[in-house]
Amino acid sequence: MVRAFLSIVAVCTLSVGYVSLARASAIPGAPDQFGGPASTHILVRLAPEIVPQIDGRGAASIDNGPIDALRAAWGSAEVKAALPAAPREPELAFALGLTRTYRFVVPAGTDTVLMATMFSGLPGVEVAEVDGIGGVAGPAPNDPDFGIQWALDNTGQSGGLVGADIKARDAWDIFPGDNTIAIAMLDTGIQQSHPDLFSPGRFLPGWNTYDENDNTDDPHGHGSHTAGIAAALVNNLTGIAGMNCHARLMPVRVVSAAGFGSEAQCANGVIFATDNGADIISMSLQYYTGTQYFADAIAYAHAAGKLCIAAAGNQATAVAFPGRFPGCMAISATDRNDAIYAVSNFGPEIDICAPGREIWSTRNGNGYGFSTGTSMAAPHVSGVASLIMGYNRMLSHDEVAAVLQSSAVDLGAPGFDNNYGWGRLDAAAALLAATPYGDLNCDGFVNNFDIDPFVLALLDAPGYEAAYPDCHRRHADMNLSGAVDNFDIDPFVAALLNP
User: Fold this and answer.
1) Dihedral sign from CA coordinates of 258, 262, 267, 271
2) Domain residue ranges of the chain, discontinuous segments joined by +
3) Do 241 and 149 form a contact (C-beta atoms < 8 A)?
4) Which residue in 225, 182, 227, 175 sits closest to 201, CA to CA?
5) Which residues contact 437 (CB under 8 A, 6 or more apart)?
6) What is d(CA 432, CA 445) in angstroms, rounded to the nearest whole number?
C-alpha cells in the first residue's frame, strides 16, 4: 500500500505543471554541449496514417489536434522534415520511418529531454527523441603541454601502456571542480605568480614554519611542481593541466631552500593548515624518525576533519613519515606502464598508488620540468580528493579516503598489497563512487525531503541549480543513463522505499 501511494504521489507530482513549465524551461541562447542533447529541436517519427503537408521550404503542417496543442505549449512554431532530400529508396525509407521523421523546432535552451518524453505518449507518435550533439571526439584541454601529461591521459605517447593513467578527462566530464575546497601544500613554497598557477583570489594566506615568517615563495622548485600537479590552471592556453584547476591553494613552506627541515617544522605546518582553512593537507615529504609531536599534529588535523595525504618516500624501504602515521594516507608511485616505481617505499601503510615517474609540471621562474618520485604521486591524489569533496560535500575525510581506496584500479597481487596498496588512482571511478544518487537536497540521506528537489531537478534544471547551489542535478540520474528524465522516477521511488 505504501509503495502504491508513493508511486502515485511521485507520478502525480511530476505531472503537474508540465505544460506551464514548457515555455519556462527555455533559456534562449544556451549552448549545447558535446555528448548532450540538442536544445533546439526534437525528432518525432509519425505514424503512417498521419501525412503532413510539406511546403516548398520543407516546412510541415501536421493538422493533428493533440500534437499541435503540445507543440504550441512548447513554443514549437516550425516543423521540418528530418530528411531534406528525397531518398533513393522511398518505400524502404518510409517503412523504416526516415521520411516520417520531423524536427520540431523550439527556442535554443529548451529542455528537450522532457519535451521528447511528453511527445512520446501521444497518439500518432511512434518515436519522440532528443537529437544528440557529437562530432569529432571531445577536445582535450587547450593547454599546449597536455599531450605529454601521460599521467592524466596515457595514449602511449611516450612509449607507455595506453590507459595507464588516472582518467582525468573522464573525471572532468563528471565534475570539473569548484573553488570551495582548499589544498594546503606543505613543501618548499609556491611561486604564486606563475602564469599557470595564479588566478585572482585562489591563494589563501600561508606561512613559513622553517623561517617563522610569511615568506612562502619557492626558492627550490619542488613545491611549485607539486602544486601544478594538483591544481594548475586548465584551458588557459598555457603549459599544463592540473587535476583540479579550481581548487584554492595554501602555500606552507616547511623546509629550507635546499629542501631540508625538521619534523617539528612540518608538524607546525600541519597545525597551521588545520587552523587556517585547509581541507586537504598535501605533503610531498619524507621523514624517518616519526616523532610523537609529528604524530600528534597529524592526529590533530585528522580530528579536525582534515584529509592528510603524503608521499610514501623514495628509498625502497618502509613507508616514511608522515605517511606511516595513522590518519594520513600514504601514496606510492607508478610509471607510465602501471608498474611500481623501483625505489618507491612500501609497506602495510600504503593506501593507493598514483603516477609519479617523469611527471611534467610547473617550476618556479615561470618554467616547467620533469620530476620523478612519490612526491609527484601524492598531489595527483590530493587533486582528485579535492574534486570528490567538492562534488559530494557530505562525505567526511575518512569517507573520501575510503572512496579513493575502493575505486582504485587493482594492480600487483589481487586485492591489497604492500607496493600498490589498494591500486592505482582512478579519478573518474572515484567521482562515480562518490555520487549520492537520490540525495537531491544534500543532507546525506535519501528520504521524503528529497521528493520536492527531485521534481524540480526533473522539470526545471536552472531552478534546481538556483535552489540547491551546493548540490548537483546529476544525483537525480537514478538509472545512470546520463540524462535526468522520467525513466528516473521508478528507481527514485525504489530508493525512497528501500534506503
Assistant:
1) negative
2) 31-138, 146-433
3) yes
4) 182
5) 446, 475, 476, 477, 478, 480, 495
6) 17
Cell of residue 480, nine digits: 545512470
- Residue 30 in grid coordinates: 544556451
Buried b (16+ CB within 10 A) or exposed e, 181-190: bbbbbbbbbb
| Residue pair 177/184 in contact by the 8 Å Cβ criterion | no
CA–CA separation, 367 and 458 (whole Å): 47
Closest alpha carbon to 365 in 205, 218, 237, 253: 218
CA 192/CA 248 separation, integer angstroms: 12
Distance between CA atoms of 254 and 415, rounded to whole angstroms?
36
Cell of 144: 599546449
Which residue spans within 84-220 are E strands per DSSP?
101-105, 125-132, 182-187, 207-208
| Catalytic pick among 187, 351, 450, 488 | 187
Cα–Cα distance measured from residue 48 to residue 496, given in angstroms and rounded to the nearest whole number: 42
Q: List helix spans (H) across 239-373.
A: 263-275, 292-303
Is 375 known to be catalytic?
A: yes
366 and 225 Cβ atoms separated by less than 8 Å: no
Set of cell numbers at residue 184:
594546503
Q: What is the pLDDT along the chain (499 residues), one digit of tens a residue?
A: 223 323 323 333 333 333 333 433 444 444 455 456 788 889 899 999 998 887 766 677 888 889 999 999 999 988 888 887 787 888 988 998 888 989 899 998 899 999 999 999 899 999 998 887 543 334 567 888 888 999 999 999 988 999 999 999 999 988 899 899 999 999 999 999 999 999 999 999 999 999 999 999 999 999 999 999 999 999 999 999 999 999 999 999 999 998 988 888 899 899 999 999 999 999 999 999 888 889 989 999 999 999 999 999 999 999 999 999 999 999 999 999 999 999 999 999 999 999 999 999 999 999 999 999 999 999 999 999 999 999 988 899 999 999 999 999 999 999 999 999 999 999 999 998 998 889 898 777 889 999 999 999 999 999 998 999 878 888 899 987 878 999 999 999 998 888 6
Largest CA distance in the chain: 85
Which residues partner with 353 through β-bridges? 332, 424
User: How far is Cα 117 from Cα 407, in angstroms, rounded to an integer?
Assistant: 34
Q: Which of 271, 263, 276 is nearest to 300 (CA)?
A: 271
> Going by CATH, does the domain composed of 146-433 fall within 3.40.50.200?
yes
Which runs of E-coded beta strand occur in 345-477?
Answer: 350-355, 359-363, 367-371
Is residue 187 part of the annotated active site? The answer reads yes
Marked catalytic residue, from 375, 382, 386, 407: 375
Which residues have CB under 8 Å from 451's CB, separation 6+? Answer: 9, 10, 13, 496
Exposure of 58 in the CB half-sphere (CA atoms within 13 A): 14
Give the 3-state secondary structure of residue 341.
coil
User: Active-site residue among 41, 194, 220, 222?
Assistant: 222
